[in-house]
Amino acid sequence: RPTELELLREYVKLLSKKVQAHLVYPDDGRQDRLQGTATVSFAILRNGQIRAETLKIVTSSGQPRLDASALKTINASVPFDPAPKEMTVVIAVDFGRKR
Fold this sequence. Notes:
Layout: H1 4-21, H2 27-31, E1 36-44, E2 50-59, H3 64-77, E3 87-95
Antiparallel strand pairs: 1-2, 1-3
Helix pairs in contact: 1-3
C-alpha cells in the first residue's frame, strides 16, 4: 500500500503533467523565441480548485511575459483532480522552444 508521501508525490506529478498540457504561451513569445521556467506556488483545495489569492511566482523565469503566462497556465488548468488533502504545491512551468 502506498504511503501518504508517495500518494502526494504522484498527485503533484499528475498536476505538473496537466499544467504542461494547458501551457499558455504568450502570443509574441514564440516569435521572440522566449524560453524559461517559472516556478509557481498555490494552495489546492480538496475539490481540485485553487485558493486564488495564494497563486504566485516563487522563482522568476527572467522573462515577465513568461511569468505572467505561467500564472495564466495554472488558472487554465483548474480544476485539478480532487486533492488528497488541502495543501500548497510548488510546480515548475516550463516554456521550452516548440518546433
